[in-house]
Write a structure and sequence with these properties.
194 residues; Four Helix Bundle (Hemerythrin (Met), subunit A); two-stranded antiparallel ribbon; 8 helices; 2 strands; 5% strand; elongated
């Protein structure tokens, strides 16, 4: 049951994301990094989804490494925490995407008539989409319980940290007065903490 709910959360997230990608403003400026993070991101996403869907498949399980023994003793608690993290992350990411509206991009980009969004979930964290997706990934990794899924979560955390720094540099250039003040007021990924 929990597995189906987690899969449903991911399906809702991806359906919304794919539908809304067509409703963005034209791009004015794009910053390219050394690596093509888009392919890495999709590879990690699909690996995590594969780990979830094929959780009990021997071949897939062997690819994801051993189960963490500490999680095996508390299946009900792990399941409850997992679905709470995944559902909360989905809601945060979708609310952030709604608030960001046409300013969203899968690249480090500045849009025409770009607005600096500082309210809604952006009033609590500067990168709520990343926070939401990371919660979804963490909840999924916890449910699957294998070392490999936690490693994939750490890869995505690193990826979004690198990308967020590049985004913040771009926003600081285009909003030289507003963005530094916003950055001082609001934490990056975890409200009031980090």
């Amino acid at each position: 049951m929990i597995q189906k709910l987690i899969v449903a959360c991911w399906a809702i997230f991806w359906t919304y994301w794919l539908a809304m990608r067509w409703f963005t403003k034209p791009t004015q400026e794009v910053r390219q990094g050394k690596w093509n993070f888009l392919q890495l991101r999709f590879l990690v996403f699909w690996a995590v989804i594969g780990a979830l869907v094929f959780k009990d498949n021997r071949v897939w399980a062997s690819l994801m490494g051993p189960t963490l023994p500490i999680l095996a003793g508390y299946p009900a608690a792990v399941s409850a925490i997992s679905i709470i993290l995944v559902a909360s992350g989905m809601v945060i990411a979708i609310l952030a995407r709604i608030r960001l509206a046409g300013n969203w991009s899968h690249e480090v980009a500045f849009k025409k008539d770009h607005e600096l969004i500082e309210n809604g979930v952006y009033g609590y964290m500067r990168h709520p989409i990343y926070s939401g997706v990371l919660l979804m990934l963490l909840g999924t990794a916890l449910f699957v319980g294998r070392v490999g899924t936690f490693a994939l979560f750490l890869v995505m955390l690193w990826f979004w940290r690198v990308k967020s720094v590049k985004e913040e540099e771009l926003l600081a250039e285009h909003f030289p007065d507003e963005y530094p003040a916003y950055k001082t007021r609001v934490k990056a990924l975890i409200p009031f903490v980090w």
